[in-house]
Design a protein that fits this description.
The chain has about 160 residues and is an all-alpha fold. Helix content is about 75%, strand content about 0%.
């Protein structure tokens, strides 16, 4: 055995074994690197998502506060307009105020010879039914105006 040479296949096996071990170690180390990169990317994504959600919640809360302020202001305006209409209605019903029309009353055609004139020279007024309809229209106009202004304010608040 002294002097006997090692067969070449042994060298080939040793070289293949060393290459396989090197490949396995490289594969494992590369896997660790990719896991670390993936964990870093997930952490970065989670942080960005949390920041985005916090900003969305902040904006939603801000918008809700603005809309609540708009609602409170417009509701106050509407209630004031309704109080004014109700006070006018009460004054009209009690006779403290009157609704007058800017109109003329045609003179009746006289049937008998003599001086022409008006039997009643009073100013024209609305009947009780017409007065109630007027007040209902006024209240409706106040309501629609308040609703329209609130919608416009809301659209402006959302658009900003």
């Amino acid at each position: 055995m002294i002097g006997r040479a090692t067969p070449p296949w042994v060298y080939a096996v040793v070289v293949v074994a060393v290459l396989a071990a090197t490949f396995a170690v490289g594969w494992t180390v590369n896997g660790w690197r990719w896991e670390a990169r993936h964990a870093t990317a997930e952490r970065t994504h989670a942080d960005a998502l949390a920041a985005s959600q916090a900003e969305a919640m902040r904006l939603a809360a801000h918008l809700n506060r603005r809309v609540a302020g708009i609602d409170a202001a417009r509701t106050k305006d509407l209630m004031e307009a309704r109080r004014e209409t109700d006070a006018l209605r009460a004054d009209l019903d009690a006779g403290r105020r009157r609704l007058r029309l800017a109109a003329t009353c045609p003179a009746p055609v006289p049937t008998a010879p003599g001086a022409a004139g008006l039997g009643n020279g009073g100013a024209p007024e609305l009947t009780a039914d017409a007065r109630a309809a007027y007040l209902d229209l006024r209240a409706g106009i106040d309501t629609v105006t308040a609703q329209l202004l609130a919608c416009q304010d809301y659209a402006r608040a959302v658009g900003e």
